[in-house]
Specification:
By secondary structure, the chain is mostly helical. It has 9 helices and no strands.
């Protein structure tokens, strides 16, 4: 079985298993828009409260990458450790570790990219309705930056999700969440600015290097991420 054929076999099996659960990330996109649009619009005008910044930054930095994980998980891995059990089954099939790593990333993209496109489409029209000066060309570069950031950051979740036991993944998510909250609160207090708003203002003021850099970093990090996941799967003892 070819590498891409084996990877897509895993993607199709996971999509069939998930069924209706793909409504979860779509609903979450709606929640994100309701929360982020008004604060972002206020931030563009310099009218947002300082502590509203860390909220929208938290969504962007921490939860954008989570969209690709929603809809394909049975639980939070605390008791059943679903992916360890799936790996045990997958290792008995005539597919390689490289196909498993590629399949997980393709599944992530299959869920994440439509959600990101849906989010940024709604985001643009909603912000533009509130703030007509919201420029499409700058917004497009802004969206490209965050989409490619999401793809790279998603590897952090994928690596721990299938590279370690469920309890490790659970505590990783908890530590990442509380660490990100603490860091963003500190940054907000120190700078009194928003990472999300600043990224738009950067490309608005000619910062073409921001989306270009995100694409270049993705071109390097994605192959490295796939090899890292494959290496971790090779080293992992599923019996422990």
């Amino acid at each position: 079985m070819g590498k891409w054929k084996g990877a897509w076999f895993l993607v199709r099996s996971e999509l069939l298993w998930a069924r209706w659960k793909f409504i979860m990330p779509v609903l979450f996109v709606g929640v994100m828009l309701l929360f982020m649009v008004p604060f972002f619009s206020d931030g563009l005008n310099g009218e947002a409260a300082v502590f509203s910044y860390w909220g929208i930054d938290l969504y962007a930095l921490l939860l954008f990458p989570c969209l690709g994980m929603m809809g394909t998980q049975a639980n939070f891995y605390w008791k059943s450790d679903m992916y360890t059990k799936k790996l045990e089954v997958w290792r008995t099939l005539p597919i390689s570790l490289g196909q498993i790593a590629l399949g997980k990333f393709l599944l992530y993209l299959t869920v994440s990219l439509p959600c990101m496109i849906l989010f940024f489409t709604g985001f643009y029209f909603s912000v533009h309705f509130i703030n007509p000066s919201f420029e499409f060309q700058a917004f497009l570069q802004f969206a490209i930056f965050w989409i490619f950031y999401t793809m790279v950051a998603g590897f952090l979740y994928l690596y721990v999700e299938i590279g370690y036991k469920g309890k490790t993944y659970f505590w990783y998510c908890m530590l990442l969440t509380f660490g990100a909250i603490g860091a963003l609160v500190g940054i907000t207090i120190w700078t009194k600015e928003s990472v999300l708003v600043n990224s738009y203002n950067t490309v608005l003021n000619g910062g073409w290097w921001l989306p270009t850099g995100a694409i270049a970093i993705s071109a390097v990090c994605i192959p490295l991420g796939l090899r890292s996941i494959e290496k971790r799967l090779r080293e992992r003892d599923l019996s422990k």
